[in-house]
Fold this protein.
Amino acid sequence: MISIKHLSKSFRNPDGSVINVLKDVNCEISKGEVISIIGPSGTGKSTLLRAINMLEPPTSGEIWVDGENIMAKGYKLDKMRRKMGMVFQSFNLFDNMTVLENITYAPVRLLGMTQEAAKAEAMELLHKVGMTQKAGVYPDSLSGGQKQRVAIARALAMHPEAILFDEPTSALDPTMVGEVLSVMRQLAKEGLTMLIVTHEMRFARDVSTRIFFMNEGIIYEDGTPEQIFEHPIHSATKAFVNRIQKLVYEIEDEQFDYLQIHTGLNQFCLKYNLSALADDAYVIIKEMLFEHLKGLRPLTFRITHAELSGETALDFMVEGMKESPLPSNDAVKKLRARVKNIVEEPTLRGFRVKIILK
């Protein structure tokens, strides 16, 4: 469906220097594929999407869509853009139009649909994204997640053959990310061709047929989710997909600032979309520090979240100990029943207790 050959994109700075954002990108995209584009910030992921639909015209190379070179002189870009929808980070809804009007505007103007037919289809699309009850309201009354679902419905209203998603959840509060990803999962099941720039690693792994790992302006690695996440070829890919996020506190004595830990926990859970775990984690941390490990100082406490596996853990390392500091009592037995697992192991510095949350 889409063939990209030797695509490059450069930007010239005010001082005359040149930044090469895309460097000789080559790929083939077939109908029905769901491709997630992952990689560090600043490696050309969003620029690639914007180049594909000519929002950022490439410096050189070729882009073929359904057998036509859309970079050829005289090619009418409107033809391509009717085939290829785009969902942006910042929603880009018309604030002076209702939700329903946002969706019907383009089909009436560009596809020649009647108002009645466009409205009927728009209501079906709003039902698909769970937004039927918001048809008559204006965008400024919607949450970020609701706006993005409307933006997806608006893109679908043009009957695209493919949709490009440019970090569709990056501007959202973490509590709203799930509702947008749920809609995108459903679209993937329906066979829509999708290219998705995302930092949601678990989503990318679950929903994609292929993964592009981009680094330094090129597609560094192209493969199935299993290959990219479990058997990456390049060291740069391996380092990126095995990211573990962590928050560390060194507790020297009994006068530590527990309020700081509590605040840090909430911010960590919010940032990585783990709010559902926050309350249980808070209770367990308090129980460990003030009951089971009371008086055992110095102690290093870490909250960790592995983006690849989705595992979230509370890690307590007691300095200088050679055996598990956990007592054998009913309270600890009850704790074991509340969590997924408790790993107890010696380290060079002391003894480590890792509590893996459910």
Q: What stands out?
A: The first strand starts at residue 2 and ends at 12. Residues 326 and 332 are 7 Å apart (CA to CA). The mean pLDDT is 91.
